[in-house]
Structure formats: structure tokens, C-alpha cells
Amino acid sequence: MHLRLATTRDLHRLAQITITSLVDDPTFDFLWPNRHTFPEDNFFFWQLKLKQYLYSKNLTFLVAVLDEQEPELVEQTHAAPDTIISYAVWERLGKSRAARKRRAEKNTWLNVMDNALVKLEAWSISLKYARRDADMARLAAFESVSKINQQECFSDVKERWSLQLLVTDRRFRREGTATMLVKWGTEEADREGVACCVETSAMGTRIYEKCGFDKIKTSVVNVGGQAESLQYVVMHRRPLVAHDVSVSSDALSWHSSVLY
User: Fold this and answer.
1) Could you tell me which of 49, 127, 133, 175 has the fewest CB atoms within 10 Å of its CB?
2) Nearest-5° angle of CA 106, CA 107, CA 108?
3) Distance (Å, whole) CA 248 – CA 252
4) Cα–Cα dist 27/229, whole Å
5) 10 Å Cβ neighbour count for 250?
6) From CA 202, how far away is CA 204, in angstroms rounded?
7) d(Cα 212, Cα 239) in Å, to the nearest integer?
8) How does pLDDT run across 194-234, given as a tens digit for each residue?
9) Torsion, CA 105, CA 106, CA 112, CA 114, rounded to 10
């Protein structure tokens, strides 16, 4: 398996992995309780969200891909080589030279155009269609609690990597792909001397603890008038070596030279 940057051609596969692999995550059921009734909405709006992630200059969208040198996995799962089996979306926060350089590398005129177009597309769709698979009140409550967590837990940690999303095809769990994607971010954070953070359901804490994350708090999301609630965990990881986040240009060029 190897890592590369996601591309536009990957979007269908990425949406497919998302809606089929998060079925046992309590967050998924809580926020999108009507996804079984409206599966087309679930796929459509997830693909739109992933497209927004893909073109955001603040995000690094990585995929783990199956190699030809792994015939046993190919045979067991009937998946073709070069099949995407896992992905992660990392955000680099901060205003240091290291953070600005990351954003500048992705801020090409083509990406700026794509980003503007997908924002316009999302705005147009929001005016024409009501999302039927989601509980919009729960989504709003979840976003509100997340913002509070960011203020309470990370207001004094301006420079950091934040893991926004980590998804693995259920057929390829426990093969090390998710760990590869998490370690990509932690190694970049160590290289720059900054922290990492993630908000995760309880089922995801084990992999993050293995990668050096510690629990900060458990948050609860609920909506007035509803009996059901959601609990999730806020975690962070300190850099192994803290140093000047300006970082040399040679160190910052690593992800471009390896992943493209």
C-alpha cells in the first residue's frame, strides 16, 4: 500500500467508501439517521462535501491505495490494484511560515477556480434541495459543540494539524492503512514541531492512542426535545520535538515530492 494525494477522479470511490464504511460509527447514525430511507441523498451530499475538502487550500486530502505487490489482499477482497482502500483529510492551522507555505503550494489558479466553482455549486444546491438523510438540528448542535471544544482545548495552540476525517473500507480494516494515514500527519507535525488534534467517536480512540494522542475531554451533543444524544472524545498529541515552526523550505517540500 502507498499514499498519494486524492484527485477529482477519486470522488465517486471516496463517497462510496464513506457511506459503506461508517455504518458502525455512532456519529454517522446520530447525524444522518435517515440515510437508509434516502441513500441517494446520503451519497450525493457526501460526494459534494468531499469535493469541497478536495479543493480547500487549508486541507491535505490523502488516499491509501492497494499495490500490485499485495496479491493476497487483492485475491481475498477481489479489489483491483490501485483501488483506494482508505483516506484521511488533514487541516494545517496557523499563520507561521510553515502553515502559509502549505496553503500556498495548493493555491494554484486551477485549484482556486475549482474551489470557487464547488462553493457556487454547493450554494446553488442548498437553494434547490433540502437534505433528507440528515437531522439538521443535530448537525447544527454538533458544529456548535465542536466550536466550543476548539476554543476550550486549543485556543492557546494556534499552530497545529487537525484530522478532519479518517475512513477505511471495512474489507481492509486492521491492515495498517488508517495508521499510515494518521502517522503521515503526526510525522509532519513532528517535522514542524507542532501539535495534532482530533475529535472522534469512542470506537476511534484506540488507533489514536497508539499514535501518541491523549484524551482531553468527552463531549455530549444533544438537541432539545430529543432523547438520543451523542458522545465523542477530543484528543491531542504533542510534538516529539518542539522547534521553530518557520521550518526550512527543504522540509516543507517533502509531501509534494513524495505524494505527487
Assistant:
1) 127
2) 95
3) 7
4) 10
5) 8
6) 5
7) 9
8) 999 999 988 889 999 999 999 999 999 999 888 899 999 99
9) 150
